[in-house]
Amino acid sequence: MQIEPSISFHNLEHSDAIESDIKRRIDELEKFHPRIIGCNVVVDAPHRDKHKGNIYEVRIDLSIPGKDIAVTREAGVNHAHEDIYVAIRDSFDAARRSLEDQVRKMSAHRTKQHPAAMHGHVVRIFDEEGYGFIETEDGHELYFDKDSLTKPVWTKVQIGSKVRFKERDGDKGPFGTNVALLD
Asked: Would the pLDDT of 171 be above 90?
């Protein structure tokens, strides 16, 4: 973790035992997402009822690259949260599930891979038909048409024009998309 975790108590006395339990659970979270930037935990006892006891509220704010995750187990009808350790456990379980979901969403097999932008130049053009061929830096040719251009500049496309494009595979072979004139 890049930033030291912050643990605070509201409406209740500081407890070394509770703080130790929270630190242990923070360390466990790093197993599910090793790039956690920071973690802020607030334990609160908002309802002080002499007859029913306290129902604890635990808020966990996690910072990870590209996203912040906030988990709150608010005081309410869950009387299991009259035990502070149960409230902490439930909050950290929810934080773990959120981290697992985030890792799953960002995993390589679920992330759509986009082709890298390449450079080349126009080697043949069939102006009236509205298509041409680009020679890539490694020497192979691929088809493109005027609808592949990022801007409506078909009249400016000439043999030798330098272009940036993305290569895709099609039914009839490779073709260029997102073609942009560099001249």
From this structure: no
